[in-house]
Amino acid sequence: MVVGTPEPSFTATATGFVTYYRSSVTVAAPFRSFVFSVGLITFLWFVVALSTLLRRAEGEPPWLSAIAMGSGVLFLALVLSGNEVAAAFRADDLDPQIARYAFDEGQAAFANARVALGSFAVCCGWVIASTRFLPRWVGLALSRIGWTSYIWLPFYLMFWLWVVMVAMVLLRQSFRGVAQSG
Fold it and tell me: Residues with Cβ < 8 Å from 162, sequence gap 6 or more?
């Protein structure tokens, strides 16, 4: 087993992808796999809780909060749809061309997941900014930009910072006085 092999570039050889999947830096490494799974479950809780609260604040028809929830769930489905974890678990018997395909599919799934993440952020930001359900600064909305370069990375990291800030605001605030349902 090779330790510490960096993620290959899109132009790497098929053997380079096999080497990567046999290393300990993949998502399939036991501790990383555990943290990844807990993170996805936590994000699902966040999506459902925030979308439910936004629905109450949005009023009828609650189409933005419904799209936000659907987009958040779609993000999770797309993140889980890549074959990279399966390829890493079977790396010892992995054909190099299958390794290349698994890597490309994982990258495409991640790029598509960011579209769903952008939709989630825009819908949440729109409801938050228009209803003032949360402080206006929480209405930050991000969207997808070029996925084949690292120019998108600051915006992607800002989204996760936004998620943490919204979660902290939600945990500290009481929502008993929010618009009544029905």
Answer: 121, 138, 140, 142
**Predicted model pTM:** 0.71
Give the separation between CA 175 and CA 162, rounded to whole angstroms: 20
Peptide bond into 30 cis (omega under 30): no
Confidence of residue 143 (pLDDT cuts 50, 70, 90): very low
Cα(40)–Cα(154) distance, integer angstroms: 21
- Cα 121 to Cα 12, 81, 85, 167: the distances in Å are 33, 21, 27, 14
Say yes or no to pLDDT of 126 above 50: yes
Model confidence over 80-90: pLDDT tens digits?
887 777 777 77
Q: Within its chain, how far is the Cα of 84 from the centroid?
A: 16
Residue 122's alpha-carbon distances to 69, 157, 159, in angstroms, are 12, 16, 11
The pLDDT of residue 74: 94
